[in-house]
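Weekly structure sync - notes
Attendees: PM, LS, DV (DV joined late)
Agenda: review two folding runs queued last week.

Item 1: First target. Sequence and structure tokens pasted below for the record.
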Amino acid sequence: MRKLIILFLFAQLNVQAQEIIEEARMSGPRVFLFAEDFYSRAQIKVKEGAYLLKGYNKDSTYVRQYGPDDVHPLYTFRAELMINRTEFDSITFYSNDTIVLRVLRGGEWTEERPYIGELTLRNNLIYIDAIARCSMEDYLAGAVEAEGGLTGRGSYLQAQAVLARTWLMSNEKKHIKDGFHVKDDQSSQAFKGVAHGAYADEVMKAVLSVQDTVALHDGRPIMGFYHSNSGGQTLLPQEVWSQALPYCRKVVDPFSLKGSKVNWTQTHTWEEWNGYWTRSYVDFSKDEWGQFFQNLPSDRLSHWTFGEEKHKLETVRRALKWRSTFVQCEATEVGVIVTGKGFGHGVGMAQQGAMHMAASGFTWQEILDFYFKDLTYDLVNNP
């Protein structure tokens, strides 16, 4: 097939277009967007300012520049990625202003998410892949906001930013063969676009104040675990998963007891309860369960023991959708009442506890040193 080059800019505009690319904030990681599920339609709009649009395939190149005073169209793409009746393998937007993206999933459009810098759509068989790249600061602020930045408490936000940057340092090459560094869901760390909530300015201020700071143990970046609320007692990683880590500590955490997610109750019918435990080869009567519950200590446990078999409560939590594993249970005629404290796996920093530490005047280093041990802090360069 005859090669066709479609260029919509003169040489002078190409210089201006290159300036847009160079000025776009793109020093951070490439992030795979809406990673939790597939989608085959996407909508993009640049809200204001100048931007550059490029489309590529093996036979053609499309280049279009919009100035700040131009009318900015709304682009709707299917998996074929068509522009002006030409199909492209990938399409990239470059802008220093906000680019909003939403995707069609399950017959409904998702909420819009804002990005700044570079946003690429690429064909993936019958689906679309979207990948964003912004500055390191914009990425970290977005991650901090998505993972628990809906507060203006500065030293907590700083602690969360250090953990986010440390996590990225350890995981930035995980998906490099796929053309991006990280995903935007909790298989990496949540990122719902650049920070745009009520405390976005405070989040960015906190990120900039600890810019490129990472937490280390013996010179290596830690796995900076965190969860919502410990219920007053954290756990060690080997109690929840399998690997012991020397910098994780088990602490009594009075700060989490002041959090909004500390107390909860959940009820299971006997059919539901026995359905799970029978599959786990535990076959108790109502009375036997009642006696078992009465014999349990009131401390936070990592597992329940039946004979010689140990069952990790983290596995039970996920299966029965408990908020945490810090539980007391009561057997009744109609089922099991589970009374719990905390929210999440219980390892590392408790976010609500850290928020209350920040409100009490603790620094971000003091917060991290409370939940972890033997840490040092250093600066790293962007990837």
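Item 2: Second target, run right after the first with the same settings.
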Amino acid sequence: MKEQESLVQVKNLKTHFFTEEGVVKAVDGVDFEIFSGETLGIVGESGCGKSVTALSIMGLVESPPGEIVEGEINFAGQDLTELSEDEMRKIRGNDIAMIFQEPMTSLNPVYTVGDQISESLILHENLSKKEARDRAIELLERVGIPLPGQRVE
């Protein structure tokens, strides 16, 4: 039987923040693998590096002051730490995504849920507005949101 290859492999990830007070080692040697069809839940105390780990994978650590100083983040056979911002933008939101835990960076109450979901579909999948709206309804239905046609509005 052929051994399954991991979809995501994080090896010795170290993400540090360089501040006036010194170096903050927010992530210091994280390792894990995720295989196709698996879900990984990262739990821990507030401030332990969960969000910084996810932001590192997504290439969203603000630099300065943050920087991935060591490690590899392999996704579908390529090391994400070696990609340019343009290359990451093509992957982010399309092939790999994150649900942010901070309420102020989540959905914006000024815009409809449909518009906010459609925005990434138009950007990453080159869909028309109508196609993106239809796909947003389909996605809401898929995750069990009741009355998805009404929710997009």
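Discussion on item 2: The chain has a mean pLDDT of 85.
Action: LS to circulate a short write-up before next sync.
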